[in-house]
Design a protein that fits this description.
Elements (H helix, E strand, L loop, with lengths): L4 E3 L3 H7 L2 E4 L8 E4 L4 E7 L4 E8 L17 E3 L10 H6 L1 E6 L1 E8 L2 E9 L5 E11 L5 E11 L10 E3 L1 E2 L1 H8 L6 H5 L10 E5 L19
Length: about 220
Amino acid sequence: MCGRYTLFTDFESLLERFDVEYSMEEDLFIPSYNIAPSQQVVSIINDGKKNRLVKLRWGLIPGWAKDEKVSYKMINARSETVEQKPSFRNAFTKRRCLIPMDSFFEWKKHDSSKIPMRIKLKSDEVFAVAGLWESWKSPEGKTIHSCTILTTEANSLVSDIHDRMPVILRPEDEKVWLSTELQEQERLKRLLVPYDASVMETYAVSSEVNSPKNNHEGLLNSL
């Protein structure tokens, strides 16, 4: 699964990296070193003409849901079965997004405890994870835009820590994933594979990251 990550890259660099033509206000972008489920997260969607930088609540709420609490069980979607699940199949076909990250955290079992590990690109570059998004309206008329992160089997680096990892898209595949015209499931699913382990690295970090209340640059430090 993917349950915690970072995004602290420069705002203007983010706009340039993902070819964003329409964006939320810059003061809504707050660098974070410990992003957790249920928070509003930076995402890129395409409206059919241009890329838009928006915020979505992490934890997808299907349009048919009766209660927003279902989102707590929908932070991740398995790429192997995403087109089969009622919660995700409509968004998989019509509402895909990119979720930018600098790194993500996973916990490695060690004796009777778990050690948080930071996982990132060796280049330190920001990368995009495949996501899905939905709009849901409550009985009271409140609209919530939400998202989920797709996962796949772990590559050779991450498998020593966990058996799953987020689907990191190759830069050349990001435009395809965002396309509002493409609805061919088999072509889309070919993108949902483990990322090249040779360009990634990982190291242990402080157990402070266990609590989303802790959110500071020191969480990136190696033990």
